[in-house]
Design the sequence.
């Protein structure tokens, strides 16, 4: 089975047929599935879509139970949490629906943790970190694209000279480099390669 475009978050099952991992969709499994939009809804009250998954949380006055349902709680109502709460040994604590969120200074609302700037996120070689609300993902560095070769994904150099995405002058030659390109004026012309006279 060969999938010409590869299967980003899935496996190649037949000629250009991808079987997506849970939480992903699309012809090449490159799109996040919004589980919050599914019928029946996966959460009783509120749902937050995350990259490849989702989180449930409850309206104020309710607390999230281990099975994902929301149970009425007078103590939670009094604390006025943004994303529901839990009671631990009689103490009420507000919750955040993702490990990429933390309780704000007021102890009731959740604020984003920027995993990219705090160094919590580790992206492999040739990938850069992109922060999202409550999470992050790794993307190929500029000048590289995700390619599926020999049964795994890697960030391969984009040949701007072949893809015609260079900005070289009409009277210049394009030379591909790792992650970028160079322009050199042809014989008889002078300039930067972007401008040749």
Sequence:
């Amino acid at each position: 089975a060969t999938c010409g475009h590869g299967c980003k978050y899935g496996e190649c099952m037949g000629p250009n047929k991808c079987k997506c991992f849970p939480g992903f969709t699309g012809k090449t499994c490159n799109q996040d599935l919004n589980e919050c939009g599914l019928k029946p809804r996966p959460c009783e009250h509120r749902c937050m879509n995350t990259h490849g998954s989702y989180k449930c949380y409850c309206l104020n006055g309710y607390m999230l139970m281990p099975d994902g349902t929301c149970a009425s709680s007078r103590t939670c109502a009094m604390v006025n949490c943004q994303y529901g709460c839990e009671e631990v040994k009689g103490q009420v604590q507000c919750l955040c629906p993702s490990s990429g969120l933390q309780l704000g200074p007021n102890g009731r609302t959740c604020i984003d943790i920027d995993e990219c700037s705090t160094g919590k996120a580790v992206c492999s070689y040739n990938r850069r970190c992109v922060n999202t609300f409550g999470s992050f993902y790794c993307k190929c560095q500029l000048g590289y694209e995700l390619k599926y070769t020999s049964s795994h994904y890697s960030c391969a150099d984009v040949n701007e000279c072949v893809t015609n995405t260079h900005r070289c002058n009409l009277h210049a030659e394009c030379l591909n480099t790792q992650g970028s390109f160079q322009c050199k004026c042809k014989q008889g012309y002078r300039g930067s390669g972007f401008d040749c006279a």
Notes: The chain has three domains: 34-112, 127-157, 158-196. The chain has three helices and 18 strands. The first strand starts at residue 10 and ends at 14. Residues 34-112 form one domain.
